[in-house]
Amino acid sequence: GMKKKAEPQGPQKIPGVDHIIAIASGKGGVGKSTVSSNLACALAAQGRRVGLLDADVYGPSQPRMLGVSGRPASPDGKTILPLRNHGVTMMSIGLMTNEDQAVVWRGPMLMGALQQMMMQVQWGALDVLLVDLPPGTGDVQMTLSQKAHVDGAIIVSTPQDVALLDARKGIDMFRQLNVPILGMIENMSTHICSNCGHEEHVFGHGGVAAEAQKLGVPLLAEVPLDLQIRLASDGGAPIVTSKPDSAQAQAFHAIASAL
Ligand code: ADP
């Protein structure tokens, strides 16, 4: 009889995509999506062809943060056309479900959706594709690293011990998966009162720098806890795009330049 064609082994390249960078965190709510969208916009501002794949299955926030909505079209019924805003080509698992519909898919379905978003989306020619991962060390992280060639991972954490503990596990996982750690970002680092200018460390400060040094990975940036950053993201135009010359945008421009 006919022999089944062997499945391709090992990580593959996504057609047209030069580099894949995963944005990860140990814990939810530390600002991984905020960093992903701002970094994507900063790379675009520097003339890089950039895509953002929102693979945060438990809380896809890129459609809101990048101000895109609607179902992606599939003219040929096989491939999916990504959406585009602020110079960023994007696709989100949130565009494949209703916004307030909880993702209760089983593992294999989830992995199918992830693979579809990687391989069936017409990403076009991209210098870099950022992947906004769900928090933690689960199936999505494993599948991504096993199916696609991931060039590096950026770990986002707040300075708190609990978040750092989980970040450490994330770094350990990527090392086991042979994905290089590009560095850590301390988010919600310093808060400067918009009334009086007083500087406060709501979640502590410097914890990530110390951890990065201990683990031997670079500290890429310390991003302040800042009302304007949240308001911009909630409004669908990240601070890097809505206020490109602001002090808050500088941290993201610096990370983009270093990549
Ligand atoms: P995660 O992707 O890690 O779950 P998000 O990026 O969705 O986290 O951030 C959680 C919430 O905190 C969002 O409302 C976001 O706007 C806000 N946020 C994230 N980073 C900052 C920051 N540096 N300053 C102010 N608000 C922030």
Automatic annotation (TrEMBL):
Keyword Iron: yes
Domain of life assignment: Bacteria
Lipid metabolism found in the keyword field: no
Binding site for ATP: G26, K27, G28, G29, V30, G31, K32, S33
Gene Ontology biological process terms in this record: iron-sulfur cluster assembly
GO terms of molecular function: 4 iron, 4 sulfur cluster binding; ATP binding; ATP hydrolysis activity; ATP-dependent FeS chaperone activity; kinase activity; metal ion binding
Keyword set, alphabetical order: ATP-binding, Hydrolase, Iron, Iron-sulfur, Metal-binding, Nucleotide-binding
Family: Belongs to the Mrp/NBP35 ATP-binding proteins family. In the N-terminal section; belongs to the MIP18 family.
Known partners and oligomeric status: Homodimer.
Function: Binds and transfers iron-sulfur (Fe-S) clusters to target apoproteins. Can hydrolyze ATP.
Protein name (Swiss-Prot/TrEMBL): Iron-sulfur cluster carrier protein
Organism: Mameliella alba
Stretch of the intact protein here: 93 to 351 of 357
